[in-house]
């Protein structure tokens, strides 16, 4: 499909195609820039790219996911400058690669994504990793999957200027569908944690996106750094359960921020253990506790999203639910009894629409997963 679009747009064949998945984070929210654990899962939704090298230093790019009048953009290798537009993600990759000493010529690039933008499913990390994978094969670049993840992370933080942690890029590059990735963001060690049998995941996009989401994310990050400095630790996840009384002595809102991060880090370890033991009831309870902590202590939820989580939790087929991703909008994940996710997600989405007036959208199980069953 993406190679057919490439041929239509550029009037020649693509040389390579590549893809990278979006993700949900099962648990471990806002721990990745605090030296903590995270447990993301690659989704069956992905960004696909097609590429053919050019003999000059021009990059011509086209995206299927933006309005037609903005779909085409160009850049010149060596003259990358941030513009605030979608092409920055491509420029971020080419300038990061050049900075690392990788040699390539210009290229034509077509992009298509079924990871919805702004839904908290890490579409930007998927885009960066897909472009990096495509360029690796087009120009035979010596890059491991782990190096692709860290290059994507630098591209996003240093060039695009989004102060994100490393979780999304790592799972986009190293993750496999159906198997969650337990990441220690301090060491970058990873371990596979398969989804237990007996449960099935559903994802509902709340349809909400907070206007200042990036600014609020930055504020939370700063608050965590200030809390760590006051507690004289290099990062908050260096603290454990026995430090909780100390956290309570911090002024608000730092005490709540720190309590969320420290307890969330502990919940990730418990969740991974529960998944390995097949204890899905405990996993569901941990998701609900994680959401309450995001809502009350870290304050990254929105009232309508709390309603969505409450409606999900009240459904007989649902073991747990929580807001996934950076917050201030985005998607909610539901841990459902196997075979019941599609129906449960539709029930919850309809109840959400009736109660809040926001449409919401079931993203998973999607058409493909429903047909596979
Ligand atoms: C966004 C960021 C991640 C992580 C989450 C919150 O998705 O990209 O690095 O911080 O928010 O857990």
Name a few traits of the molecule.
binds alpha-D-galactopyranose; 12 strands; four-stranded antiparallel sheet; Alpha-Beta Plaits; 373 residues; 12 helices; alpha+beta; Ribosomal Protein S5, domain 2; 2 domains
List the helices and strands and how they pair.
Elements: H1 2-10, E1 16-25, E2 37-38, E3 40-53, E4 58-63, E5 72-76, H2 87-99, E6 107-113, H3 123-139, H4 145-160, H5 167-174, E7 179-184, E8 189-194, E9 199-209, H6 213-230, H7 244-247, H8 254-277, H9 280-296, H10 303-313, E10 318-323, E11 329-337, H11 341-356, E12 361-364, H12 367-372
Parallel strand pairs: 4-6
Antiparallel strand pairs: 1-3, 2-7, 3-6, 4-5, 7-8, 9-11, 9-12, 10-11
Helix pairs in contact: 2-3, 2-4, 3-4, 3-5, 4-5, 6-8, 8-9, 10-11
The structure holds alpha-D-galactopyranose.
How would you summarize what this structure contains?
The chain is of the alpha+beta class and 373 residues long.
How many domains would you count in the coordinates?
A: 2
Q: Class of the largest domain in CATH?
A: Alpha Beta
Q: What small ligands are held by the chains?
A: alpha-D-galactopyranose
β-sheet strand percentage: 15-25%
Low-confidence stretches: none
Total helical segments:
12
- How far apart the termini lie comes to 24 Å
Main sheet record: 5 strands, mixed
Helix-strand pattern: HEEEEEHEHHHEEEHHHHHEEHEH
Mean pLDDT: 96
By CATH, the architecture of the largest domain is named 2-Layer Sandwich
Fraction of residues in helix? 40-55%
The strands making up the biggest β-sheet line up spatially as 1-3-6-4-5
- Cα radius of gyration in angstroms: 21 Å
Global shape: globular
CATH topology of the largest domain: Ribosomal Protein S5, domain 2
